[in-house]
Structure formats: C-alpha cells, structure tokens
Structure prediction request, 292 residues.
Amino acid sequence: MLGAAIGDALGMPQETLPPSLSRLEENYAKPLRRHPNDGLRPGQFTDDTQMMLCAAELLGEGVFTPEEYGSRLAAIHAGKKLRFPDGAVATACTRITAGLPDSGRASTTSGCLPLAVPFALACQDGDDMRERLQAACEVTHTHPAAYGAAISYALFLRAVMHRHPDPFRVAEEIAEEYDVQLAGSIRNACALEKEGLSLETALITVGNDVSVYHTYPLALFLIARFGQDEAFLPVAAHVGGNTDTIGFICGSWLGAAEGTAGFSGELVMHLEDQVYIEETAELLFDMVSGKN
Prediction:
C-alpha cells in the first residue's frame, strides 16, 4: 500500500502530459500551473490512493460492502475532495449522491484498479477475493475488462508476494477469463519486453492512456523491463498519459516484491499521510492474521 501511494505521488505531476523520459525526476514534484492536479503539493497522491484507502479502511474494520464503499466514495466526491477522478468514477459518485440505481458504468477506464491492492491483502481465499473485488469494482465500473484487470492485478500481486515463478503468466491467464482483448494486450506487452524493444516503441504499441487495455499492460512491461533498475519508479512516472495509475501499479509491485526496503527514506518520509497508510495496512494485516 505504501509503494502504491509513493508511485501515485511520483506520477501525479505528469498525469495527462506527454512522455518526458529525457529528464527523469527522482523525487516528488509539483504539477505545472493549470494542470488538473495544480492544487496538490509534492508528495501528495491522487484519487487512486484515496480509493485504495477508502476500501482498505472498510476492509480493515470488517464492514466492507459495495454499498458502504460507494457511499463513502460519493461523500468524498460531493465534498470536492476526490482528486481528478476519471469520468466513470465521477459519474458513479454523482448517481450515488442523487440516489439513482446502477451507479457503475460500462467503462474500460482504469478507475477501479486501485481496489486490487487492499483486496489482495485482505482476502485469504482467492475465489472469495475475486467475487468481492468484482462487486466492489462494479460500484463504478461494470465492463468485464475493467473488473477483470483489477482481479488480474490483485492475483498478480499475490503471486509476487508468494514468490510465484511467473506472476506475469498469472496476470495474463486471469485476464483471459474476463476479457480476451485485455489478455492479448498483456501478452503483447510482455512479448515486446522479451524481444528487447525500446520503451519508446512500447509506448507507441502498448499505449499509455487511461484504458485498462493500455495502463495495466504498460505497467507490466515497465515492471519486467525496469523492476530491478534504480530508475524504475522515475521512469514509470514519466511515461506520459496515465502516470499516476501506472506509477501506482509499479509502486505496489515494488512493495510486494521488496517491502519498504525498495524505497528511499526520502520518498517514504515526504509522502502524504505516510503514517496513516502504514497504520491502515497494519489494520488489514491484523485482520487477516486474526489479531485483535
């Protein structure tokens, strides 16, 4: 969870911008004037981490339901505190606030992907996790590619944490169960990486926009290509497009693979709400481990 928030905060200033791989910034930065995240300071995160924490709080308290999650998310949005949400999330929140049914939209945007992290940590049974995570995603996203990507991502993280020999294969196989095109995009991204094609080529071929067909496969490409490189997170934060979510996915992988040792003290120390994120993660751990 800490890694996801760090990656999100690193990618926050570059969200929606073109790639800027020639001038990588290793620390948190402030967005440009008139940027959608203009009001945020260096080290602050976007709606991705807000959504992750919203779900994690409920899971840690043992009171998660899709209805309660939707209600809390809509309250954040109604208070104008949800930071640059995608269209499907914003529309869902507006419908919930208005008391309208069927809040979820048949959208392939990546807005529900952050739910994968707390569910990967909170659910011991994989089948139970799939069912509960899909129901949570459908509060905002009802397209199979969207919730399929979230489920694939959650099981990818679990495979990493349990030292599976090929977590990328797990990601592809799970995605195939929900959306053939999504699985094909993941397969293509992984093939490009194995072939040694440049990142610039991958950005053109895989894409970097808000669709799960682009964001999730590109993040997997970056993990496979740069995961052991010190410039990994700065690269993820500067690939352009949906950099906050791409950084979120890459940061969560690094946390699952290496724990807090994977991040510099500066990044941890200057992250917004760092202590609260750690406390919320510990709440999930205590719940899963059966501690009071």
Q: What stands out?
A: The chain has one domain: 2-33+41-289. Residues 2-33+41-289 form a domain with the ADP-ribosylglycohydrolase fold fold (CATH 1.10.4080.10). The mean pLDDT is 96. The chain is about 60% helix and 0% strand.
